[in-house]
Inverse folding.
């Protein structure tokens, strides 16, 4: 009887562990897309997140306001290791490029946790819009990009 | 005849006394706009406007000279850019309006409306600002 209980406990433990690991995996979208449209000097009026664990994390920011265009909880919602600081660094880099007149481009970004990401951006000045996508190395490879 | 001369003098003085630069910016894209224009008004004021996101940088289209009381004060592109950057920094930092003296040469006054992203800036010579008790 004791052995049976121990076996049941062990199986339960393995099952719980697998579920937790599965949830972690599912919480990691393979790509992150940010769209910023007609923002004001201070930020945006609307900031909308659309996150599908395991598929994508989208962020859309529009119209003049005072909100920062950022995910509410990037470490858990966006990828396993991209931090808020990483996302801000990516955003700042794109802003600098666009401000210098480079309206389309791509670059590799190394996160604080030393993982590589591919960032592809495109700006549409007549619409006041910037789009960019952050791919994990694996997703970039799947899409045929090289990091 | 005396009255006519006095009237002409009065008109001349009133037009030159009021001259300053004012410009409005609404919804740009990294300081690039669709509509960028500069108009020299009849009273000597210079009006610039930059609206809607586009491809043209918001900056003076011709040399800015502010006439006041018979004295022409030039406002260089560098000075304009520096003033514009100072105003933008203040607004991004949270100020909805204010004024400051720039380079012991100009008084700059600005207001910002977050809802429309409209930034209105006025640039006066110090002589004009003093005359109208703005400083």
């Amino acid at each position: 009887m004791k052995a049976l209980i121990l076996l049941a406990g062990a199986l339960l433990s393995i099952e719980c562990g697998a579920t937790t690991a599965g949830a972690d995996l599912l919480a990691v979208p393979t790509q992150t897309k940010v769209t910023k449209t007609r923002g004001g000097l201070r930020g945006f009026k609307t900031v909308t997140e659309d996150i599908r664990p395991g598929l994508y994390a989208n962020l859309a920011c529009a119209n003049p306001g005072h909100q920062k265009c950022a995910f509410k909880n990037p470490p858990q919602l966006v990828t396993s290791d991209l931090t808020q600081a990483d996302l801000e660094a990516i955003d700042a880099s794109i802003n600098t490029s666009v401000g210098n007149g480079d309206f389309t481009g791509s670059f590799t970004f190394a996160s604080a946790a030393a993982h590589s990401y591919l960032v592809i951006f495109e700006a549409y000045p007549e619409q006041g819009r910037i789009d960019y996508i952050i791919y994990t190395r694996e997703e970039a490879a799947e899409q045929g990009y090289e990091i | 005849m005396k009255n006519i001369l006095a009237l002409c003098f009065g008109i001349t003085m009133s037009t030159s006394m009021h001259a300053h630069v004012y410009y409005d910016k609404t919804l740009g894209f990294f300081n690039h706009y669709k509509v960028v224009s500069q108009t020299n008004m009849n009273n000597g004021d210079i009006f610039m406007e930059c609206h809607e996101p586009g491809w043209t940088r918001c900056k003076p289209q011709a040399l800015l000279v502010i006439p006041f009381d018979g004295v022409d004060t030039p406002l260089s592109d560098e000075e304009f850019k520096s003033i514009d950057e100072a105003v933008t920094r203040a607004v991004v930092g949270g100020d909805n309006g204010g004024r400051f003296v720039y380079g012991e040469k100009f008084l700059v006054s600005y207001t910002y409306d977050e809802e429309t992203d409209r930034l209105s800036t006025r640039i006066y010579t110090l002589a004009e600002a003093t005359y109208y008790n703005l400083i």
Summary: The longest strand of chain B covers residues 46-57.
